[in-house]
Amino acid sequence: MSDATFLSDLPLAGDLVATGFDGWSDELRAEFEEHSHDGRVGSRLLSETDRVRVWEIRLAPGERWHAHRHVLDYFWTAVNAGRSRQHTHDGTVREVSYSAGETRHFTFGPGEYLLHDIENIGDTPLVFTTVEHLDSANPPLDVQGRSDDRPEGQA
């Protein structure tokens, strides 16, 4: 989907710090292309039923979780306070401060998605729980193809 106007209706968090792919390296652009249909929206799949997938993202300071695509209705909750930088497929960059317990809900229509990464730019670990609803307008993406449940930069 090349029209990203629906992004303006999403509850994207944080302060807009760049647009037009400003500051994006060739490596970052290549990663977004490589992971453009990566449904692993967290660093660890905690639980899956016929109705939901429950993910954890746990990032130490300086770590990031690679680009991934959200197509299912979902919500995330920040387990603790922290800060992140996120690049989004429309070429924007946001910096976000989270409070413990902060929660945001996302809903996608047919063909809509959010492709982004997340990097911990704070000085404390950043932990989220993300719950995807499998009965959304879009079919779930396959998450079985990747066995690496560690954030980039971890061995």
Mean pLDDT: 89
Give the spatial strand order of the biggest sheet. 1-7-6-9-4
User: Percent range for helical residues?
Assistant: under 10%
Structural class: mainly beta
The percent range for strand residues is 35-45%
β-strand number: 10
Count the helices. How many? Answer: 1
Biggest β-sheet description: 5 strands, antiparallel
Q: What separation lies between the terminal Cα atoms?
A: 34 Å
Instruction: Give the topology string: H per helix, E per strand.
Output: EHEEEEEEEEE
| Spans of at least 5 consecutive residues with low confidence | 146-155
Radius of gyration: 14 Å
- Principal-axes shape call: globular
Give a quick set of tags describing it.
6% helix, five-stranded antiparallel sheet, mainly beta, 155 residues, 10 strands
Characterization of this structure:
The chain is mainly beta. The strands form two sheets. Strands 1-7-6-9-4 form a five-stranded antiparallel β-sheet, with no helix packed on it. The termini are far apart. The protein has one helix and ten strands, in the order βαβββββββββ. The C terminus is likely disordered. A hairpin with a 5-residue loop joins β6 and β7. Helix content is 6%, strand content 39%.
Short description:
The C terminus is likely disordered.
Topology:
Blueprint: E1 15-18, H1 26-34, E2 44-48, E3 52-59, E4 64-70, E5 74-78, E6 82-87, E7 93-98, E8 103-106, E9 114-120, E10 126-133
Antiparallel strand pairs: 1-7, 2-3, 3-10, 4-9, 5-8, 5-10, 6-7, 6-9
